[in-house]
């Protein structure tokens, strides 16, 4: 008598062999349906690239949208208040995402209407759809990137091994870029990210400064009263929370972050 494990192994092997033969027949039949000059391998590569892009979608959202500046500012707010886990990370990330969708809605709609929807209707090719979809995000990044950061990454790109061969043409390329030539994404995206990080830290400094003043005042008072062993944060935390609530801090912070993009 054969053991159950051996029977299961044989059944799985036969199933795999049957599925493999069926897939081979389907692939052979699909070759007649593909356009001339297009192979099944090309379709497989396209599917792999698509799945890879979908897995990197959260990272792409962070890189080319307003998410970076917002989440950095919210992190500085929690640190300035002296709260370790309140608001929770889930709340801060969710707030940053909804604010990002609110700010980027015109960009998303333009990319959908001009790039994705025509591709789904088979009115444009994939290459043209990519160009149209990326164009609104490129325009958004160019509006908010610093020229200094953009120039730095452009100089770094020209100084790579691939660019040393035609270094003599660098001034001419710079003139073409200044005249409106599209900046490559490998230069624009990192320049935009460090620009957003810089602005996020600037906003974070303005957020943390009032709370730092409150901490200094409370620490000075407690030291003058001889309470050496009492941590100043224990007393300053309620005052910082009261100050933030009285000035309607969430309204001011969220409104200021949204207005910084318009």
How would you summarize what this structure contains?
This protein is mainly α. It contains twelve helices and no strands.
Beta-strand segment tally? 0
Alpha-carbon distance between the termini? 77 Å
Share in helix = over 70%
Rg, nearest Å? 28 Å
Counting DSSP H or I runs of 4 or more residues, the number of helices is 12
**SSE succession:** HHHHHHHHHHHH
Q: Sheet bearing the most strands, described? A: none
- Average pLDDT confidence is 75
Question: Approximately what portion of the residues adopt beta-strand conformation?
Answer: under 5%
Shape: elongated
The parts where pLDDT drops under 50 for at least 5 residues are 4-37, 170-180
Based on helices, strands and strand pairing, what is the structural class? mainly alpha
Task: Describe this protein's structure.
The protein has 262 residues and is mainly alpha-helical. It is built from twelve helices and no strands. It has helices spanning 4-33, 40-55, 57-64, 67-81, 89-120, 126-144, 147-158, 161-164, 170-178, 185-224, 232-246, 249-259. Helix 10 (185-224) crosses helix 11. The longest helix has 40 residues, at 185-224. The radius of gyration is 28 Å and the shape is elongated. The N and C termini lie far apart (77 Å).
Keywords:
single chain, 262 residues, mainly alpha, 12 helices, 81% helix, elongated
Topology of this protein?
Elements: H1 4-33, H2 40-55, H3 57-64, H4 67-81, H5 89-120, H6 126-144, H7 147-158, H8 161-164, H9 170-178, H10 185-224, H11 232-246, H12 249-259
Helix pairs in contact: 4-5, 4-10, 5-6, 6-10, 7-10, 10-11
């Amino acid at each position: 008598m054969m053991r159950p494990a051996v029977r299961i192994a044989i059944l799985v092997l036969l199933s795999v062999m049957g599925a493999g033969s069926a897939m081979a027949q389907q692939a052979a039949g699909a070759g007649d349906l593909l356009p001339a000059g297009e192979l099944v391998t090309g379709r497989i590569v396209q599917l792999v690239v698509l799945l890879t892009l979908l897995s990197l979608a959260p990272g792409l959202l962070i890189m080319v949208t307003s998410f970076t500046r917002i989440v950095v500012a919210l992190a500085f707010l929690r640190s300035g208040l002296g709260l370790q886990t309140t608001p929770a990370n889930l709340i801060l990330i969710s707030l940053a995402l909804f604010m990002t969708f609110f700010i980027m809605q015109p960009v998303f709609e333009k990319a959908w209407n001009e790039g994705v929807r025509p591709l789904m209707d088979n009115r444009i090719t994939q290459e043209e759809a990519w160009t149209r979809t990326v164009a609104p995000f490129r325009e958004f990044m160019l509006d908010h990137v610093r020229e200094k950061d953009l120039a730095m990454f452009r100089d770094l790109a020209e100084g790579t091994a691939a660019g040393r061969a035609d270094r003599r043409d660098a001034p001419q390329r710079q003139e073409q870029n200044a005249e409106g030539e599209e900046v490559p994404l490998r230069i624009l995206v990192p320049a935009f990210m460090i620009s957003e990080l810089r602005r996020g830290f600037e906003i974070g400094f303005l957020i943390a400064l009032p709370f730092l003043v409150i901490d200094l005042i409370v620490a000075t008072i407690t030291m003058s009263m001889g309470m050496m062993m009492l941590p100043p944060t224990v007393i300053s935390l309620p005052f910082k929370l009261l100050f933030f609530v009285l000035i309607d801090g969430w309204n001011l912070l969220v409104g200021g972050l949204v207005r910084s993009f318009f």
